[in-house]
Each structure stands twice: as structure tokens, then as C-alpha cells.
User: Fold Nicotinate phosphoribosyltransferase from Paenibacillus nanensis.
Amino acid sequence: MNHTDDSLALHTDKYQINMTQAYWQDGMQNRQAVFEVYFRKLPFHNGFAVFAGLERVIRYLHEFRFTESDIDYLREDGYSEEFLAYLRTLRFTGTLRSMKEGELVFANEPIMRIEAPLAEAQLVETAILNIVNYQTLIATKAARIKHVVGEEPCMEFGTRRAQELDAAIWGTRAAYLAGFGATSNVRAGKLFGIPVSGTHAHAMVQAYRDEYKAFAQYAETHKDCVFLVDTYDTLKSGVPTAIQVAKEFGDRIRFRGIRLDSGDLAYLSKEARRMLDAAGFTETKIYASNDLDEQTIINLKAQGAQIDVWGIGTKLITAYDQPALGAVYKLISIEDENGTMADTIKISSNPEKISTPGRKRVFRIVNKASGKSEGDYIALEHEEPQNEDHLHMFHPVHTYIAKFVSSFEARELHHTIFEDGSLVYPIPALQEIREFVQANLQVLWEEYKRTLNPAEYPVNLSKACWDNKMRLIEEVRQKVQQTMKA
Ligand SMILES: Nc1ncnc2c1ncn2[C@@H]1O[C@H](COP(=O)(O)OP(=O)(O)OP(=O)(O)O)[C@@H](O)[C@H]1O
Ligand SMILES: O=P(O)(O)OC[C@H]1O[C@H](OP(=O)(O)OP(=O)(O)O)[C@H](O)[C@@H]1O
Ligand SMILES: O=C(O)c1cccnc1
Assistant:
């Protein structure tokens, strides 16, 4: 490395810096700009996503600055001294409104809203999307897996397969937040207080060239023992040897379990259970791992597998079946040359992809009688849906799909995190976020939670928000027509 890696300011796409340069040269850099973060499609065909990444976004914005090494590097790239001097002064001075980490989020609703001088808001886009896309994706995958597992513990085993070090660490945190119970990554334990636990690998049995010696040595050195029983022959050698060592060591160890890591996990777990029970080890748990995900787990359960603890690595930490969430960062409002805010829109031939202009608030409309959510309601900044007796909720594209809701609680989902550059939000403990996820899931009807073909959760626009969108679409249409005539 030629330069010290002492900041994340350059963790951005070059075009952000180039746009910033254009704004700065034009004197536009301090115009207030409002951007929103949202995705258009839920990952894994799931019925909801679990938002994760806020804590890291907070750290990033808090520390945002171009260091001398960043400036030196940009100088080599030919940027002018005047522009570099300007970059050196930049800090995040804006306002961030965001959903809390652990909030359930759906397609086409703003997760975050960044309101800042244009240059700042533009420069932070890439890192914010990088963080939110990955962490939300993994938290959602973890929630899917946890949903099919149910009450049994899930352990995160993915570090060796993760897309490098950061992904392992923050992915583990996302998995824990969404309901996993422990990780094998010791550094994640140190950094975030996640419970760390583990068994042992085939290498240990191979190193001793003998299962008995390996298990016995493990038992000599550890009170809690989980023996990996599939190195040679699970039922003929692994399980009997584990039982033998456990009997020999008696009270000197706690024989917590055995781990199965290959072969037919349903058959082997049932046989192993029978053998452990027959030997009196009815409390000893059966751990299973080997490329597990929600599909294999559903299948194993359907076969009556006797698995008590699930170790899940590759398919979780890499979001194997959908390796990217497509959250975007879109400009929704910008200060014009007269100092007034003007809403902006991005048109698409696909109506679902047309952005929704203007500063907005998102509410979860919870039916007071059932305690369940009727859907999310996106309103313009000044609106107070809570004050309405009957809320008209209609589909933003197919507007005839509509209902009136009464006796509801409109829970606002955005919170102020930074106010004019100051952090005003107390970052919650990870444990609290974990509990928040479970409480949020309680509010969702089961129809939205099933992993296969879930029902589509309503995300509606208020009439005022919808009208504003239609007004801008018409404005753009007229502008395009005038351009064509000219
Ligand atoms: N009873 C089962 N029903 C459905 N899937 C299973 C069952 N048992 C195991 N699996 C899954 O099938 C896949 C089998 O993996 P693989 O082909 O690598 O076989 P293996 O026995 O694990 O071999 P290896 O020794 O190379 O690990 C894994 O994803 C595993 O989780
Ligand atoms: O299967 P995952 O969900 O990724 O869980 C982690 C895997 O990592 C370990 O073995 P590794 O894959 O390194 O080697 P092995 O399976 O060939 O023993 C462990 O035994 C699991 O199988
Ligand atoms: O502790 C384990 O059993 C473990 C840890 C990482 C990967 N696979 C298994």
C-alpha cells in the first residue's frame, strides 16, 4: 500500500468526487439536497427484509473527513489545490432520518433520508449503500433461516467463506441481530459482545490419526465437549467413540453434544439420537452443519431429523441464492437558485420504478384490535395520519386496490439520527436490537412471514403524496414535450 488507510472518505466511487467538483466549481455544493435509501424488490422472494447497517453508517458519517493521505492521493490524480482545500474542510453537517436497526422494511419505502449540502450528501452515497445493502441482505437471510428453524439455536459458522474480513464481521452481527444465537468468530464476540462458541474440526481427529485420542485430549482440556463424529464412519466409529470418552470422563466433562457434518443428516441424526439415548445421554445435543440453508432445513425437519443445534456458514454469510440487495439512493428534493426546495422525480417506463418525490414520513399502521399491521403508509412530511378517523390505504400503482382502516395506531418508523451534523440518537445495544426484531415480527401476520410465496405486504402512499407524484410526472412530461418541439 502506498498510502495510509486512515479514513473511509475515499470509500466512494470516483464519479461522486467528480460530481462534487462540478457542483463546487458551479457554486452549487451547499444547496440543500434530500436523498432517500430504498430498494425496489425484496431479497430471496421473502415477505419482508430486516434493516441492518445503521450503527456502521453512524460511525462512518461521524468520522467522515478527507485525511491528509486522502488529499495526497487525490492530488496525484490531478485534482486542483483549491478543490482539495475545499474537500479538506468537509464534514457531515446534515440531518439523517432513518429506520432503527432491526426494523422490518419493504420494497419502495424509504429506509433512510439524508438531508445535507449537496456535495456531502452525494459523497456519502456509495458507502451508505455498501453498508446497508450487505447488512440488510444478511439479516434478512438469517431471519428466513431462523423462521424455519424455530426455537432451536442457530450458530453462525461462515467466516471462512465470507467475502473477506469485513463481511464476516458485520455479516455475523447482522445474523445475530436477526435471531442467530452465537457465532464461531471470536473477533465478532470481542467487538460486539455476541456469544462465541464452537466445536472442533476434522483436522483434530486427523492430527491424532485416531478419534479416541482426539476426543480424549479435547476432554482433557475442555469442560464443555461437542465431538465431531463424521471423520471416519459416523455410526460405526464416531458416535460410539464419543459415548466411550464421555463415559470414561464422567463428571469431569459436560458432554454437550456431537456434530454431524456430512452424509444423510436426517438418517444419521436419528440413529445417533437412538445411540446417545440408549447410552443414557438423553440431554446430549446433536449439532449439524454442511451447506445448510432454509431449504435443506425444511427438508430435514420434514424427514424427522433429530437435530438440536444448527451450524450455518456459507449459504448465510454469502447470501448464496441472492448475493446482492439492490437498495438505491435517490434525490427527492433539491434547493433551487432562489433558496426554495423543489421536489425531483426519476421517471421509468416501469411504473413501479418511478421514484416518489418529496420529503416523506413512513408509518406502520397497526390495527388496535388485532395488534397486527395493516400495511405501511408513506405520507408527506406535514401529514399526520394519526389524526384521521379512517385512513384511506390504496396501492400506489393499482389504485383500485384500496381499503379504509379505522381504530389504528400510526407508528412512525423514521427517527432523527443526526441533526445538522450532531449525533442525537443513542445507539442501542445489540441485544436491544435483537429484541426489537422479534417484537416487530410479532406485528406481522403469518402470511407475510412464510418463506415460500409470502403475501405482498401493502406499502401505500397517502393521497397527498400520490398527488404530488402525479404532479411531477405531468411536469416532466410537459418539459419533455417542449424539448421535443424546440
Ligand atoms: N437427509 C437429507 N435431506 C436433504 N438434504 C440433505 C440431507 N442430508 C444432507 N443434506 C444436504 O445435502 C448436501 C450434501 O452435501 P455433499 O454432496 O457435500 O455430501 P456430503 O455427504 O456432505 O459429502 P462431503 O463429505 O464431501 O461433505 C448438503 O447441503 C447437506 O446439508
Ligand atoms: O457448511 P457451512 O454452512 O459453510 O458451515 C461451515 C463449514 O465449515 C466447516 O467445514 P469446511 O467446509 O471448512 O470443510 P469440510 O466441510 O470439508 O470439513 C464445517 O465443518 C462446516 O461444514
Ligand atoms: O465450531 C465449529 O464447529 C465450526 C466453526 C466454523 C466452521 N465450521 C464449524
Observations:
- The chain has a mean pLDDT of 97.
- Residues 157, 160-161, 202, 261, 289-292, 311-315 surround PRP (ligand 2) (CB under 6 Å).
- The two ends are 53 Å apart (CA to CA).
